[in-house]
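On clarity, I found the account of how folds are encoded harder to follow than it need be. Since the whole study asks how a given chain folds, the encoding of that fold should be made plain. For the editor and my fellow referees, an illustration may be useful. An entry of this sort, consisting of the sequence and the corresponding backbone structure tokens, reads as follows:

:::
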Amino acid sequence: MDIKEVTEYCLSKPNAYIDYPFGPEPAVLKVGSRIFAFIHIMNKKSYISLKCDPFISQSLRQQYAAIVPGHHLNKKHWNTIAIDGSVPDNELAWMIDHSYELVYKRLSKAEREKLNNAG
């Protein structure tokens, strides 16, 4: 996946939307009031930062050189992944799904119900 496909995949998640609270970079992907992904370009390279279970984070970092602790984020709960083709598309999609699910579960019950009723 390239940066456009990654962004489109993130936006395909239920009630996901893109925001730019920090200016033109990074693109911030949210569900409800919570962020599940940051997409940015640094030194002409594309990256996505995703929330991740700490145990899984460590395993992914050991498995792929393109996955490092979250850039400017909590290193325990976030990974930054180079969008350079070195991480298989299905793994990247799984990581986006995992981040989305972790964040969605943390929404308040009222916010989840509001989102579910809006669609």
About this structure: Residues 89-106 form the longest helix (18 residues).
